[in-house]
Specification:
The complex is a heterodimer. Chain A is mostly helical. Chain A has one domain: Arc Repressor Mutant, subunit A. In chain A, 38% of the residues lie in helices and 9% in strands. In chain B, strands 1, 2, 8, 9, 10, 11, 17 and 18 form an eight-stranded mixed sheet that branches. Chain B has a four-stranded mixed sheet with strand order 5-6-4-13. Chain B has helices at residues 20-31, 67-77, 81-85, 103-118, 128-134, 156-169, 213-218, 273-276, 288-299, 349-362, and strands at residues 10-16, 37-41, 56-57, 96-100, 124-127, 144-148, 152-153, 173-176, 180-186, 189-195, 198-207, 226-236, 246-249, 255-258, 264-268, 307-319, 325-328, 335-339. In chain B, a hairpin with a 6-residue loop joins β17 (325-328) and β18. Chain B folds into two domains: 10-51 and 157-225 and 321-377, FAD/NAD(P)-binding domain (3-Layer(bba) Sandwich), CATH 3.50.50.60; 96-152 and 227-319, D-Amino Acid Oxidase, Chain A, domain 2 (2-Layer Sandwich), CATH 3.30.9. The termini of chain B are far apart. The chains are: A mainly alpha, B alpha/beta. At the A-B interface, β1, α2, β4 and α5 of A face α6, β8, α9 and β16 of B. β1 (4-6) of chain A pairs antiparallel with β8 of chain B, so a sheet runs across the interface. Bound molecules: flavin-adenine dinucleotide (FAD). Residues 16-22, 40-43, 47-50, 52-56, 179-180, 208-210, 212, 216, 231, 233, 267, 314-317, 339, 341, 343-347 of chain B line the site of flavin-adenine dinucleotide (FAD). The site of flavin-adenine dinucleotide (FAD) has 41 residues of chain B, from α1, β2, β12 and β16.
Chain lengths: 111, 382
Amino acid sequence: MTKIVRTAATEPFKPMPDDDMIVCRCEEITKGEIRKAVYDGMSTTNEVKRWLRCGMGLCQGQTCQKNVQSIISRELGLKIPDIGQITGRSPVRPVVMEVFANDVLDVHEEA
Amino acid sequence: MVTVAAEKKKASLIIIGGGVVACATAYNLAKKGMNDIIVLEKKEIGNGGSCRNAGGVRQSARDVRELPLAMYAVSNIWPTLSDELDVDVEYVQRGNLRLGKTEAHIKTLTGITKKSTDAGLDVKMITGDEAREICPYMSDEVIGASWCPTDGHANPLHTTLGFYRKALQAGVTFISGVKVNGIRKYRGRARFVDTDDGVYEGDNILLCAGWESRAIADTVGIELPIIREFSECMVTEMEPDMFPVMLGTAESDFYGGQTKHGSFVMGGMCGMEPYVSEKDRFITNSVTAPCLSRGIIKYFPVLKDVKIIRTWSGWYDVCKDKVPIIDNISEVPGLTIAAGFCGHGFGISPATGLAVSELILDGESHTIDISGLKYDRFRAKA
Ligand SMILES: Cc1cc2nc3c(=O)[nH]c(=O)nc-3n(C[C@H](O)[C@H](O)[C@H](O)COP(=O)(O)OP(=O)(O)OC[C@H]3O[C@@H](n4cnc5c(N)ncnc54)[C@H](O)[C@@H]3O)c2cc1C
């Protein structure tokens, strides 16, 4: 990971006209909330996600991650690889627990 | 915006590791006026167990040596922590049920319960029907449970990052992306911290890098009997409020509960862990989530239609005798170690932060008794 030095903000948070725009649709997180999280010290894609839940919803960031990353990187003046990405995890799509639980069934028995 | 400060490599205290223990300790120290601190984290804040755990805040089934930390946290810190940190840490104190389906399970649970009641805790065995009154969604297969009404759960992400944010605001410097390789003494005291970003220097050093503390302590000749143990978790989609209790089972099929958000966070092991977890990345195994799902459905058939949206993994920081090491190291003056929380360090972390801050400032923990957690308590068989 890139070295990132974090210290307390020295200037007050500056609101922006489009802060109300929703960026993460699953969890309804706005651009302003993401900017404020960065202002508060969250400095990687994972940290912002864990603080706000953007990328933790049903789509797991497949829709919004790029936009979230570009907001964070712009606020920090860092490149996207510096702030990392959220880890891609199984399952790729939501899976019903009962279906998951069935993996031990012998398919031949079923037939 | 976060301003990137001029190169700072020297401080009164260098903290190694950026987990909840580091953040809570830095916060407590800064609150007492000591904020000349640099925290060094190899990846990002909360990269270890601190942002991978299931959020259990439990006093029951705790070893008596760490019970004082758990009791202090539950009585004096958790109830007001959201106000203190200015973020909802989602602490709920609605009890912990440990479920049993067979006579053998009940025997196990009765044994654990007795240990907790002997230590003065309000835990008791209840019948299956009593358990179903507390949590109506439970299957009839449950014939009994242990019940600790003062246990609960909280949001580990908000807690870890909440302590981090407050410490940052109070003047602590956090540097991520710097990996510590070792500690060096100068004139008999711990002084230098060697990293892949050069040498950092502190009047005092706190080592709290989870299971990875062992290799770092080794560089100053201190052997920590801590190993890592692989464990996985999964989270469901959002559901209406069903039950606020934290759950576990005698058989350890799974543990977990429903979060404020509505999702269920459930963790556990598939039994294959020692043979599949040699990688250093946080992989997940294809067999674990199905295994946990089977466990959960047996106890809570109603959850069978709920969707799993994510799985993840982490390392338990397991110390030889299942309680952590929290102590000043006499052979290495200036060095304090807090590590090896054995997969249950989150619930006590607010109290750990207080105790460690006293160890560093005053040389001893006077508010909470941690005398059973000394680093030199380990002995070979007689
Ligand atoms: C799956 C899982 C479920 C759990 N469930 C619960 C629960 O329900 N209740 C509970 O109380 N506890 C639970 N725990 C345990 C709990 O999460 C840990 O005990 C606790 O988070 C330990 O905090 P820590 O700050 O000591 O360590 P960590 O959070 O592991 O922090 C250590 C930090 O040090 C960093 N680091 C390591 N090596 C270096 C280096 N060389 N240089 C720089 N930085 C380094 C790591 O990146 C990491 O960020 C669980 C753990 C896991 C894995």
